[in-house]
């Protein structure tokens, strides 16, 4: 089992950057593929990015490709999401999630563990 705690959210102007972090507990962090998802008010939770256990494979939602970068540090049990060129439509609560598998997935139902979320607000 793994527990996840996100941080790094906040208020930023359009065009700005933020780096989200997700701290994972447990000694088996490297066995989990990880993902970032987000949920805007009145909308369903949506996929943002995913990374394999080694970091060697990643995937992104089309809406964030070229602007967001997912990465991980297995030695520190940390997951990151670097967000550049932020847009007002990126405003949402961002969640990190862990999957009981080593390969990537964009399907939220395949993730067993979730953090509490961190708010990102992008002003125009």
Describe the structure in your own words.
- With 124 residues, this protein is an all-beta fold.
- It is built from no helices and eleven strands.
- The strands form two sheets. Strands 2, 4, 5, 6, 9, 10 and 11 form a seven-stranded mixed sheet that branches.
- Strand 7 (68-73) and strand 8 form a beta hairpin.
- The N and C termini lie far apart (40 Å).
Brief digest:
The protein has no helices and eleven strands.
Overall helicity: under 10%
Report the uncertain regions: none
Beta content comes to over 45%
How many β strands by DSSP?
11
Order of helices and strands: EEEEEEEEEEE
The average pLDDT value, as a whole number, equals 96
* Number of DSSP helical runs: 0
Give a quick set of tags describing it.
mainly beta, 4-stranded antiparallel beta sheet, 7-stranded mixed beta sheet, 124 residues
Secondary structure blueprint with pairings:
Elements: E1 4-7, E2 10-13, E3 18-24, E4 33-39, E5 46-51, E6 58-60, E7 68-73, E8 78-83, E9 92-99, E10 113-114, E11 118-123
Parallel strand pairs: 2-11
Antiparallel strand pairs: 1-3, 3-8, 4-5, 4-9, 5-6, 7-8, 9-10, 9-11
